[in-house]
Amino acid sequence: MTHLHRTLPLLAALLLTPSLAVVAADNSQAIANVQAQLKTPFHQTELEQDKSRLPLKMVEFLGITPGMTIMDMGAGSGYSTEILSAAVGSKGMVYAQNNHHMETMADGKYLKQLHDRIDGAKLTNVQAVIWEMDAIPLHNQLDLVFWGNNIHDYYNSLGEAETLKILKNVYQALKPGATFAVVDHVGSAGNNNDKLHRIEPHVITELLEQAGFIEQTTSDIYHNPQDNHQLSVFDEQIMGHTDRYFVKAVKP
Questions:
Q1: What angle do CA 65, 184, 129 make, to 5 degrees?
Q2: Fewer Cβ within 10 Å of end Cβ, the chain: N or C?
Q3: What does each of the 252 residues of the chain score in pLDDT, given as a tens digit?
Q4: Do residues 250 and 209 lie in contact, with contact meaning Cβ atoms separated by under 8 Å?
Q5: Residues 30, 87 contacting (CB under 8 angstroms)
């Protein structure tokens, strides 16, 4: 289910967006591209992740269409990169962004996995880049930025001001009318969300507003009522199945 919190005036929306029928058809093609990718021999080791990451529903909610230029922010080993790469097709492009910390984290294991994925899955439309989160060297170039399960680390360790620097840099990198999507593990007030690796949804919403984004829309595809928000996201009882908040917002 999708929920719309804030919308542009109707006339402005019509001027900014193409025909809904055309967008829906193009999104269907992106979903079909991902369906094909999920069946490739390379992807078969990811089938367990697919159950919780829900790649087809993710691409549908994001409204991805072939030919888009996208950044997978904090790409890690590149699961989302692979999905986004398939969705945008051969005429699109995906920046798989990691920061310098990832070069040494776990002795570079995650970056090696990313490059192995790019080579093994033949993701020819992916460019792996090392950019700091608040120093993305793009300006009005991206149609979509996807940031998965990572904003909590920055907010909890660096605070609001530093996290806003990151979001404002993303804002600059996006084209007018483009989408910034954030998903993260739900935290609750009164809990040690830093230790649990969680964040309260209203914090994300407020940060997006402060950074200048509008028209926030949420999806409940990652909602899990069995998660009481009391456990670390790495606890075996909930790992991979946390209750996650998924929101997309628009750069006006």
A1: 60
A2: N
A3: 555 554 444 344 444 455 566 778 899 999 999 999 999 999 999 999 999 999 999 999 999 999 999 999 999 999 999 999 999 999 999 999 999 999 988 898 999 999 999 999 999 999 999 999 999 999 999 999 999 999 999 999 999 999 999 999 999 999 999 999 999 999 999 999 999 999 999 999 999 999 999 999 999 999 999 999 999 999 999 999 999 999 999 999
A4: no
A5: yes
CATH class, 2-250 region: alpha beta
In angstroms, how far is CA 107 from the centroid of its own chain? 25
Rounded-to-integer distance, Cα 139 and Cα 148, Å = 21
**Six-digit token string for 157:** 């360790």
Q: Is the separation of the CB atoms in 243 and 227 below 8 Å?
A: yes
DSSP strand E in 136-173: where?
Answer: 142-148
Residue 184 DSSP SS3: strand
Rounded-to-integer distance, Cα 218 and Cα 3, Å: 5
Structural contact between residues 222 and 246, judged by C-beta atoms closer than 8 angstroms:
yes
Exposed e or buried b per residue across 201-223, where buried means at least 16 C-beta atoms within 10 angstroms of its C-beta: bebbbebbeebebebbbbbebbe
Collapsing DSSP to helix, strand or coil, 242 comes out as coil
Q: Which tokens sit at 109? A: 């294991």
CB atoms near residue 114 (< 10 Å): 24
The 10s digit of each residue's pLDDT in 127-152 is 999 999 999 999 999 999 999 999 99
Cα angle: 94, vertex 100, 104; to 5 degrees: 115
